[in-house]
Write a structure and sequence with these properties.
Elements: H1 2-22, H2 26-40, H3 48-72, H4 92-98, H5 101-109, H6 114-125, H7 130-137, H8 141-157, H9 159-168
């Protein structure tokens, strides 16, 4: 019962982090992370914050393993066509998720250099503090601060971010008459 509560509390942030780091294989890597976590949970002792650091460290190690596996044995993805799956219907929920703001933001973060993407994702998306992020990444807190700051600055200058920011501003209507005293 307690493990299920841990999973429910941590899985969304873990999955968002892994989407930035390993892309489409995030769910597989998350599954491997939870499997290893379940096997080693009885050996863990610490605080809830310590558990988050431990969990994200495991996830990062699994992500590194996945990137190595892909480099050693690259696979050519092949999209299944509906006619290949009898009775298959488009998954409307999946389409909505793929178009969500979160997915867009994660895809933009994924364009950052690896160290900046990890620092921004762990700090902003997963909600870890600088010390915890440094522990997960095996870096000094100062290096994490710099990587996160540089990543956030790059994101602020990213063309897609600027476009969305401009599109979200209400247009100035300089031609409409002003009502005074209302």
């Amino acid at each position: 019962m307690a493990f299920a509560a841990l999973w429910r509390a941590q899985q969304p942030a873990l999955l968002r982090y892994l989407r930035v780091i390993v892309g489409d294989t995030a769910e597989d890597v998350a599954s491997e992370t939870w499997l290893q976590t379940a096997k080693a949970l009885r050996d863990f002792s610490g605080t809830p914050a310590g558990f988050r650091v431990w969990l994200f460290t495991i996830a990062r190690n699994r992500a590194i393993d996945e990137r190595r596996r892909v480099r050693r044995r690259p696979e050519e993805p092949r999209d299944l066509v509906e006619r290949e799956l009898p009775g298959a219907h488009p998954d409307v929920a999946n389409e909505v998720i793929q178009r969500s703001e979160t997915d867009w933001a994660l895809s933009v973060i994924a364009t950052l250099p690896k160290d900046q993407a990890e620092a921004v994702t762990l700090r902003v998306v997963a909600g870890l503090d600088v010390a915890q992020t440094a522990q997960v990444l095996g870096k000094r807190p100062g290096a994490v601060r710099i990587a996160a700051m540089r990543g956030l600055r790059r994101l602020a200058e990213h063309a897609e971010v600027k476009t969305r920011r401009a599109d979200s501003r209400p247009p100035l209507d300089l031609q409409s008459p002003r009502t005074e005293g209302v």
